[in-house]
Design goal:
single chain; 2 domains; five-stranded parallel β-sheet
Length: 451
Amino acid sequence: MPLEAPRDSTIAVVGDGFGSTLIHTTAMYLGFRPEDVTIYGPSTTPIGTYQQFATNLGQTVLRSESESHFLPADWPTFAQLNAYSHRDVRYLWRSIKRKYNPGVAEIMTQATVVARDLGWDACRYPHRVGWLQRVTDGQGRRWFQLFDEQANPIGRAKHVALSLGHGPLAFPPLLARAREDPRIADRIVQGYEAKQYLPQGRYVVLGAGIASVNEWANALDAGAKVLALTRNPIAEEQDLNVPRCLFESRGIDAFQRLDFDQRIAYLGSVLRGTHPRREGWKAKVQKGQAEGRFDALIGEIDQIEPGPAGLRVHATSQHGEDPGWLDVTGVVAATGFDKNALAIPLLRRLIEHYDIPMVGPRMRLENDCGVPPLDHEDSRLMVMGLTANAVVPNGDTIHGLKYAARRFVADCARAEKLRQRSFPSRVRMQLHLTRRAAAAMKRVEKTTQLA
């Protein structure tokens, strides 16, 4: 793709996924002009990456509740919008009982409508950012110079948000090494990778979070046998990856009043994969057990090699008798993403060049997700998403991204002394987007609720 002329703007978003949409939407809602915002990334839609992961995982509903939506204001919630668009009050009752989960197809539809109507694509510069550099002139004015992956200058911005998504897919070290063996590489996949289950196959699924449960159901639906292998006994049911109070702004604010080390310790005690109760999944597992196609063991793979069924894996356990050698068709590692900030190339370069403080695998961010020593009130540099979960504990959810986006855009508005959009104008924008989203969602088939 030929390089376009550099684009200068007040706000730059490095990344073209959900975070970019929420920052762009918030900026337009507060009163920034389209030319004030640049979104850097090659995707022509902000939903592409998430949609691919959801498709590979066979995911049909989001784990978050109905506050996780892309409209600029909090109202209507997604349950209210779904109830209106489908003329079905049961969504409201489910939301009251905390048993409602937005459908992937419907949330993708809403995100697409909001991005299109507010001109997301017109603000996009279709190249990846490989580097950004702090610049200060003789009068003390600060900004950032951005470069592409070939070190070509592609623009300048006063404020920059790094919305880089998750890191690389994570594999246990043994499986990562085994994937280098061409004899068995294609039989070891990650939950978020594309895959196909053989009807008579037998698969080991590692983990017990929502991705693992999805894969249990997918394999059983295909007619395969499933062996759920977990290192420890499956914990009590947890519908969200952090306690629900941390999905509230007040809860996040209280979390941020802890010092950084206290936050890390707290996350270590509460942050874990979701293991939600879904009657649809429960029925499938019970049916699989009755047919002899589902079993669960506590153990960890310590050897893997080619075998008559495709793979032979050996598992040991710290909770009783070792499972021993197992003949299986394949292994699915529902083990998420590498959470180390150094695993993301742009962050690694910034950390090393600017000596950004680290605590283990995490960047020691400021309470506003700012990146020291590059972040200043008059020229912000912030990180959002999973990388910022020591500041926003649900940072990898739509709700967490929205929280960070709103704080960041509000800071930019104060720094620029923005003349904000009037209240009547905001209401008109919200109502317009609500009507457009409801009309589009009405054409989407209802997603089956699994709770």
